[in-house]
Amino acid sequence: MIQHPKIDPIIFSLGPFDIRWYGLMYLVGLAFAYWWGKRQCQMPHYKAQGWSQEKFSDLLFYGFLGVVIGGRVGYVLFYQWQRFLADPLYLFDFTSGGMSFHGGLLGVILVLWLHAKRNQMSLLQVGDFIAPLAPVGLAAGRIGNFINGELWGRPTDVPWGMVFEYGGPLARHPSQLYQAALEGILLFIVLAIYSRKPRPVGTIGGVFMIGYGLARFVVEYFREPDAHLGPLALGLSMGQWLSLPMIALGLWLLLRPRLVAAK
């Protein structure tokens, strides 16, 4: 059994402003996405599609806004619906915390669609370019959750079980680190290898959807369900139910080129 290190979530303060580890993790993810995206712009198969650093920089800026706004809206609608009905202004209370990956994904998809329309590209083409940029940011976000001592796992007796300050006296799975490893590092490695050469349109995005959906679905069995929601239908969590459509869409994107060719 290991004690959570209880890291102060605030790195330092500048007057009334607190600089937090969780916010820094977002910047780490953004910086990595910018660096890796610039590398992709130099790859011949992406150049042939019309990608340039200018187009990518515009997309990254608005994509980041899509993550933040979509993540907040998704969290409130998916996980805090009753609280939102009682107090609609809660949607704008960013100081209370709460972000949803699936909401952020929907926000990003909207941004990708607008970018594709403006630049006369297909949504799937834009999605393929942006998919490898996301996992490291996801890993950084989960490390931020771990530093904050939040979103801990279910009780366990494994040797690496961890006691979290606000999780009671029981040792729990450090599920934030599981997610960082699977949804973040492993998924990035898979996408980085798969996207090194030309692929049928939509398949890189499909691999991301399947990879994230499966990783999230599995890790949810080790993560403590949201107290106010608990297990839903069939004993699945909200995160698992939201991941199932991702997996289905990813499979369709991966199989789509073969289905089109077979017609």
Automatic annotation (TrEMBL):
GO terms for cellular component: plasma membrane. It is found in: Cell membrane. GO terms for molecular function: phosphatidylglycerol-prolipoprotein diacylglyceryl transferase activity. InterPro entries: Lgt (IPR001640). Its EC number is 2.5.1.145. Catalyzes the transfer of the diacylglyceryl group from phosphatidylglycerol to the sulfhydryl group of the N-terminal cysteine of a prolipoprotein, the first step in the formation of mature lipoproteins. Belongs to the Lgt family. This is Phosphatidylglycerol--prolipoprotein diacylglyceryl transferase. It comes from Pseudidiomarina taiwanensis.
